[in-house]
């Protein structure tokens, strides 16, 4: 692709491809320019630099994960809804590991836009848990517990640590999610007593 048709959207699409191939933060503006068939200086007519590109990649990852998580909103049964949400989280992490890593790394960045945007993948958990538990502090604690469990599981799975004996990792994942659902429902029942 030459300069004609080069714009921020085209640059970001190429950056996402590079992230998926090479890893988050493992490519340069020079490599991005080569992918697009332009000189590196041409990119700066459309983006300010690699940090802007990394931000856009992270925002794309957040948008995709948020869409997947929101599928759970349509299920009225809490355990089923949490299962759908957890499956969506796991599927995203396994099918787009570098975008997932981008989201995880963004949390520690100094970029205020990204810190604010990360709330978009926390919010679906808060909404779902809030169906069962009304106390805000408990809801936040449960959301953190669930997200930590999901992240820990997919991180171990990505590294191959969950393959050494039966049951398979999918069975263990389901067991974990069902146990988390019981925890949330128990907290909701305590409130109603």
Automatic annotation (TrEMBL):
**Is DNA-binding one of the keywords UniProt gives this record?**
yes
Task: Give me the positions annotated for DNA binding.
Answer: 28-47
Q: Which SUPFAM superfamilies match?
A: Homeodomain-like (SSF46689), Tetracyclin repressor-like, C-terminal domain (SSF48498)
* Annotated InterPro entries: Homeodomain-like_sf, HTH-type_TetR-like_transc_reg, HTH_TetR, MT1864/Rv1816-like_C, Tet_transcr_reg_TetR-rel_C_sf
Domain of life the protein comes from: Bacteria
The segment(s) forming the HTH tetR-type domain are 5-65
Q: Is Zinc among this UniProt entry's keywords? A: no
Q: Which PROSITE patterns does the annotation name?
A: HTH_TETR_2
Q: Which UniProt keywords apply?
A: DNA-binding, Transcription, Transcription regulation
For this protein, the record's PANTHER family field holds: HTH-TYPE TRANSCRIPTIONAL REGULATOR BETI, HTH-TYPE TRANSCRIPTIONAL REGULATOR RUTR
What's the name of the protein? TetR-like C-terminal domain-containing protein
């Amino acid at each position: 692709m030459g300069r004609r048709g080069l714009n921020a959207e085209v640059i970001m699409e190429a950056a996402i491809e590079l992230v998926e191939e090479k890893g988050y933060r493992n490519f340069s503006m020079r490599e991005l320019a080569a992918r697009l068939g332009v000189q590196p200086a041409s990119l700066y007519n459309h983006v300010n630099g690699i940090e802007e590109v990394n931000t856009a990649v992270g925002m794309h990852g957040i948008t995709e994960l948020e869409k997947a998580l929101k599928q759970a909103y349509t299920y009225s049964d809490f355990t089923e809804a949490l299962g759908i949400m957890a499956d969506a989280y796991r599927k995203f992490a396994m099918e787009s590991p570098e975008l997932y890593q981008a989201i995880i790394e963004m949390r520690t960045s100094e970029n205020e836009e990204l810190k604010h945007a990360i709330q978009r993948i926390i919010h679906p958990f808060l909404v779902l848990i809030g169906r069962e538990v009304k106390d805000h502090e408990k809801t936040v604690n449960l959301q953190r517990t669930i997200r930590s469990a999901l992240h820990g599981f997919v991180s171990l799975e990505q590294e191959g640590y969950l393959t050494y004996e039966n049951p398979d990792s999918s069975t263990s994942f389901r067991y974990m999610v069902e146990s988390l659902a019981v925890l949330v429902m128990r907290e909701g029942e305590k409130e109603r007593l």
